[in-house]
Amino acid sequence: MKNIKTYLAALALASACFATSCEDQPDAFRLADGVPVLHYIRPVDVNSADSLLTEAYMESQLCFVGDNLRSIHEVWFNDQKAILNTSFMTDHTLILSVPKNIPGLVSDKIYMITAAKDTVTADFHVLVPGPAITSMSCEYALAGSEAVIYGDYFVDDPNVPLTLSVAGVNVDRKDIKISKTQLSFKVPEAGEGPVCVSTIYGEAESVFNYKDSRGIITDFDGTTDVVPQGWNIAASYSSENGISGNYVVLGPATLDEDGSWQEALKLPFWCGNWNGDPMSITSGAGIPICNFIDFSDFKNMAFKFELCIPKSNPWMSGSMQIVFTSAARCANDSWQNNTYIHTAASGGLDLCRALYTPWAESGSFDTGDQWITVTIPFSEFKYNADGTEGLIPLQSPEDFASLIIWPWSGGAKGTECTPIFKYDNLRAVPNR
Question: What is the pTM of this model?
């Protein structure tokens, strides 16, 4: 009760102050009488001010030009109300954005309504973007399982129903649950290929492929020669409840609240061997990754893998450090060592890396015993081990000779835990 009384008193005081301030500010906005007159609509950008608009996409900024525009109390595009900011209203101009929600009833009209409920209309067509696909919950989801496509503008028009296909195989309509930003569906029997969505407003094809085999670093099934290689590897293999043959398992092993060094969770793929220059290896264990995958356009590529963390062993501390490095930085006269993953302050090189820390938002993370696809653009490989900005960025294809994945450090304090990490289908693929 005390809090309510305090709130009401504050509200009364604020109202009194507002009333006083209006009297003291002769230039403060006041709604005008009469009705508005709209001459035309143009872009806000002054460089395009001579272009007249009769249509625009949702969320586009527009400038109304006319007379007595301060008389406008509400603006509607079809059946969607726009947000008015009086700071951008004068007698002759009004700047606003087309509402972001898809109209339910399309009239192709703008309605300008005064406080007296007088209405002035204008012809205007709101363009709805075509569908956009951003990701898939698991790009290797098994046929018959439930998967999710994420994106936007998944519009299911009664006259032109939405369609979804996976690698050229149409998904049965009854197996699709539709919202504006995601499609839940039953995965059909299909081979490798993109996901396609078609709506009344257009079509979209995913950059990723379902069952993507492009740029496979290792799938733990012998598709490539890359195998875990380095000091003190505790990885094991399994195919039980997998999604594409064998996968690798790290853990269970204990991480303290700081995600301190835990060798049992390290997954290294060091290039080279005891017998010479790593870059000369063209086949077999120790082959540099960049010797068989083209990284020339790495700025437009991403690192991907499938991940499963059981509910029984959630992850609650340490960032997953993902470090690519050149053979020269990884190997030395005594073959490889772990120095390159350290920060410079602890004897390392401060190589830029990705830090994947999904537990930070809620304090705990698992995948519910399901497999998910993790996507990290190479543009995000920009951090030091402690979470600060890195000093040595990825610069050339030769920087992709070796790889290490290691839940360790990252700068975020968590909770002691004993996680299990299951990995499959490590790959470098186009991201746009």
Answer: 0.84
